[in-house]
């Protein structure tokens, strides 16, 4: 299982991983998905969708978004949910996960 980094305000390049599982709790192969994205609900309830990519080759069911400048701009709990669509029109979503974004001791 991938180890995710702690999230802090202002971090860039930090991976946020969405793990897709089938009903039997095994990994969903997302390598053939035509759409891969991660939805975020920030602490102030702002909803944002970001394009994601396979974390490895997609057979492990993991998609990743690497944080960009100004994305992690609020301390608090952020909700995260992955979404993929396959060419046949089937959609899959991950369970909603909660990620804590910590404030920094000192802002530069």
What order do the helices and strands come in, and which of them pair?
Layout: E1 7-8, E2 15-19, E3 35-41, E4 47-51, E5 53-54, E6 62-66, E7 76-85, E8 91-93, E9 97-102
Parallel strand pairs: 1-9
Antiparallel strand pairs: 2-6, 3-4, 3-7, 5-6, 7-8, 7-9
Q: TL;DR?
A:
The chain is an all-beta fold. It has strands at 7-8, 15-19, 35-41, 47-51, 53-54, 62-66, 76-85, 91-93, 97-102.
Report on the structure:
- This protein has a single domain (7-102), classed as Immunoglobulin-like.
- The strands form two sheets. Strands 1, 3, 4, 7, 8 and 9 form a six-stranded mixed β-sheet that branches.
- It has strands at residues 7-8, 15-19, 35-41, 47-51, 53-54, 62-66, 76-85, 91-93, 97-102.
- 20% of the residues are buried.
- A hairpin with a 7-residue loop joins strand 5 and strand 6.
- The model has no long low-confidence stretch (mean pLDDT 94).
- The protein has 108 residues and is mainly beta.
